[in-house]
């Protein structure tokens, strides 16, 4: 197999131009994007991606979940493909790079290989996974989850958005319900480039994150029942304040996560207080605690501590409390050989790098269940993501894609 020289690099300017061109579709109101899954804007972005892929000599396949697969043939017809990609859908107030960088970096790999007339034993397939964000149709990573066998297609099709529209109906409406069976494709390996969505790489001054693990996640919905009463005329000792109980439990959530520092995290992002009136003591509070860790036993311990602390707070205050686990997945350990390919690529190219644990969910976390998988990460400014102010530099995008190129080519085996 010909050696992969350190002078082999992608065209960073072309990659950046592609990112900016895609960002014109579904513009946000503050410089980012609103290209939510299976909307007309999503369809327009898909058509642009397909046109680019076909112009680069790829053939496009689409499965019944709308996942897109652009294939560059290999020299061995019997060799399983090396897949690379991410997602084109965004949050309602999303940035221009989350997910999109991973898809268009895959396209840039194909374009670079064409420029240099590089052939590989294994085919290379660039993938756009449908509905990674899960913002319109929960849960996140929906279509890669069906591909990996975590969800049934019927269940996924039946997911509804806030207006009651079904995912399957909307996918068909925009014309991207393909005919391939979901999950029928077999993979030699899968690589995903993504912005970090956190501040570590920038703070450490590193070009590349070599992602070794993905954090596991646990969502527990907590409901506290007290008694609504007047804020002015109810004596303090006679109150049954569900809001106060929630505050005490959330303070404990912070302590529980810190107990398992440095990799465990915990917070509540979804909070409802009833009746949510200025002069009524809350009689009910419903909130979801999000615990994450790369270690399953740590997640289990945090869940148990939450229930113990929450029950004690409720008992001490004479309130009712209930707990319901409403979501979660186990931690992910990415494939050692694929991770090594990423690390070796960064070293070969002279990019500073460090091991990293992904704090967010990604399609790679599900695909890791059915194929050898690894992730590459590049920094983002101030760690900001899922925000229209999300920003990366052209140099970061280029470095991440250079590493992706080398890792993919090593895995796909250059023949000429």
Low-confidence stretches: none
Question: Helices and strands: which structural class?
Answer: alpha/beta
- How many helices? The count is 12
The proportion of strand residues reads 15-25%
Radius of gyration: 23 Å
User: What distance lies between the first and last C-alpha atoms, to the nearest angstrom?
Assistant: 8 Å
Helix content: 25-40%
List keywords for this structure.
alpha/beta, 416 residues, 15 strands, 22% strand, four-stranded antiparallel β-sheet
Commentary on this structure:
With 416 residues, the protein is of the alpha/beta class. 35% of the residues lie in helices and 22% in strands. The protein is built from 12 helices and 15 strands. It has helices at residues 12-22, 40-55, 100-115, 142-147, 153-157, 167-173, 200-204, 242-259, 296-317, 336-349, 363-367, 394-412, and strands at residues 59-62, 68-72, 82-86, 124-128, 189-195, 208-214, 216-225, 229-230, 265-274, 280-281, 284-293, 320-329, 332-333, 353-358, 373-378. The strands form 3 sheets. Strands 1, 2, 3, 4, 5, 6, 13, 14 and 15 form a 9-stranded mixed beta sheet that branches. It has a 4-stranded antiparallel beta sheet with strand order 9-11-7-12, with helices on one face. Strands 8-10 form a two-stranded antiparallel sheet. A hairpin with a 5-residue loop joins strand 1 (59-62) and strand 2 (68-72). Helix 1 (12-22) crosses helix 3, helix 1 crosses helix 12 and helix 10 (336-349) packs across helix 12. The longest helix is centred in the last third of the chain and has 22 residues, at 296-317. The protein is elongated, with a radius of gyration of 23 Å.
